[in-house]
Design brief:
869 residues, alpha+beta, 8% strand, 28 helices, 3-stranded antiparallel β-sheet, 5-stranded antiparallel β-sheet
Amino acid sequence: MKKRRLFTLTALVLLLAVPAFAVFNEKDLGQTLSVLRQELKSDYSKMSNSRERLSRSTDVQHHQMVSMMKKCNELALMLYSQKQDFTFDMTYALKSVTREYEEFNNRRMPFDDIVSRMDLEIDRYSRLVESLRRLPPQLHDVYDVPDSLQYHNDSLNFDIPQELETECLDPQHFHQTSSFELDEQGLIDRDSCLFYAANLLKMYSGIKDQIVEDNYYYEDTSARLKESYDYAQARYEVLQKRIFVDGQDNYIKVLSNFGRKWRTAMREMRGKYESKFSVDENGIPVKSQWQGPMVFGFVAFVFGFLIIAALLAFWAVKMVKRFIKHMRRESFKAKERCLIYLATSFIFACAIMVALIFVPNRNFFSVAANLVLAFAWLLVAILMSLAIRLNDEQSKAGMHIYMPVVISGLFVIIFRIIFIPNSFINMILPPIMLVFLVWQAAVCRKYKDIVEPGDAALGWITLAVFAATTVVVWIGYVFIGVMVLIWWLFQVASIETITAIRELLERYGKNKLVADLNKFYGIKKASVTKAREGEYISVTWLYDLIRMTVLPVITIFSIPFCLMMASDVFDFMGTFKTLYYSPIVSLYDAAAKPILHVSVFKIVLVAGLYFVFKYLIYVTQALYKDIVTMSVKRHNGANSIRLNQINFSLANHVINFVFWAIYVITIIVLWKIPVGAISVVFAGLATGLGLAMKDILNNFIYGIQLMSGRLRVGDWVECDGVRGKVTAISYQSTQIETIQGAVMSFLNADLFNRNFMNLTKNNAYEFVKIVVGVNYGANVESIREILLTALEEVKTEDKYGRDIVDPKRGITIAFDEFGDSSVNLAVKQFVLVSERNNFISREKEIIYKTLNENNIEIPFPQRDVHIIQ
């Protein structure tokens, strides 16, 4: 942290020290000098205070510079002393040098800019001093200005401008008689201004001297770090080739020379971890903190913290059980173990964090503790997900499912902490992976029907990862295997975390969200399905944001994030950045400018932006619908509106088009896709595309016309004898749900070319005529009155409060015709189109019942047959 402040104090002082004096056209020269005197006095005071702070910070800066130079030399010695066969040791050294070099460059001060600013200030003040000196009566010398700043160039080039210097040295100039001279007050002000300006000039000179001196040491340190960095990058390339291309000996070959390989491994292990108390020529003990005593001491420290955490967790869970009745059930014992493990991991992780804050910064302890801390938080994520999602019995099975991957990850972390030699890990990892493979297969088979399907699937995927890792390490690519293992542990933890958040979100949607909607909108029971369709966007926007955007984006970015974390564990962050940010497709034009630049990072970013734009479209459409709906409700004084009362189709499609167009433009900008080349291609294909897309364009144009007002979603239409309700209008087709429940799609052009009727365009009512026959000789007027009285029952309202029968026209019964067997009466009315089918059935039933109750016969067709013999 101290190194980050290097030179920042100097920059702060410079910003505070730069004076802001300026005088404008005053009443006369005397007043100008008086104002200038006060301005310079104020700036001199500020500069003096800043100079004191600069003096204090100079000592701090010097110590930081010395510390940086020591660190630079320490890193060089560490880097050049590493053996190629100790991969973990080598990657740690390479990472340390790379990180220090990158941080050094990020903190690099703009010395050239600062020096340029100093030169401008020095030039400005030197001109001001000279102008003040020449005011009559002129002064021959300004003694408060250093010799190097008066009339002679120095190494820093702090000189009076040449034209002023020449003029000042002209003897005739000194004896020239002036037409006016300063009065007594003017002389006092001039002398004061000269004093302040000259001393400000000195201060700037001193600051520049210090900056130039700092820059010398800074550049020297930078050159040394650059030398080590270049060597580290070259070694990185060699190391990467050995790990990812060449590999090590396959395990079959290792087994054929097992005795020799084992002896070599044991020799390297003893050399690395045995305590060595050597002394230098002065008899002072010399030992490394990375050898056995420190390693075993850290192991004891970890186990001590773990035991304390376990005891505290056990006590905490037992105490909580006394207050929560649910936890005292017999079936809860299985989940109690999961909670104890979770509490232990959490307390242990917190303890390690506290230790990292208060324990002095020691390289081995810091590296090892951070790795253990990362593992502890991964374990917390997995156990917390199991505790949230699974029931009592499932939690026990879930722990068994994930135990192999957790233990394998612990092995890898231990290998990394103790910097285990290559020879030893090559000997023990292949058989260990076989054990984990068999273990994972056993738990997957045993608990597959107990845990949730998602956990079972994740267990089988873990088995596949173990199988692939086992094959990789057996053929000799051991370090690829350990990297895959630790990556999968991170990935499992991220998947479990996302799954737990999704589960909590689902519970909130079913419980709390419904209650909030009922309270906000004043309804009895809100629908979660409608909430997810944007029906209650004023309340659900945050819920929708997490559900539709945050979780999918986190899921997408979890893969590169876990890869990055796994790479950082093994100090291969540089390799990850190269693969992640470097272009996989890169083209340049004749001027060497990139015209196509696609990397893994940009692909992942575009995938994440897809969900962002999808949510923006959803929210915009929902807000538009909500605003327009509320406006129509207020205008009509209604509590609800019908589906086809407002035309949302065109607005929704426009919103879709605008946002997806922005999304496409974003991709073009991110990937640097050559727009000119796209234009040329489309221009060349325009004719062919126009002919090929003739029908598509027709449907598109007709679709816009339909959406502009001819049809609305919810309208009832009839086309070619097919009657149904419009459920969707797109740019190519119109979807209709028929009265039989089937779904039919009509191309927009075909719909226009056919005689289709919009039954709800002008109004919502349709003429309905029901014919009923009665006996010849019946009293038609009496029957009309009976039926009209009975049919008052059908004059009800639909769910939107509309009269099913048009109240303006009502129900009329007219004499229709003389039938063969009956007198036919026509029952006429205008009925809501959406209620037509149910209404006809209900009205016929009422007519039939009424006629029967009044003993009015409904004749059936009769024929008299005469047989002639």
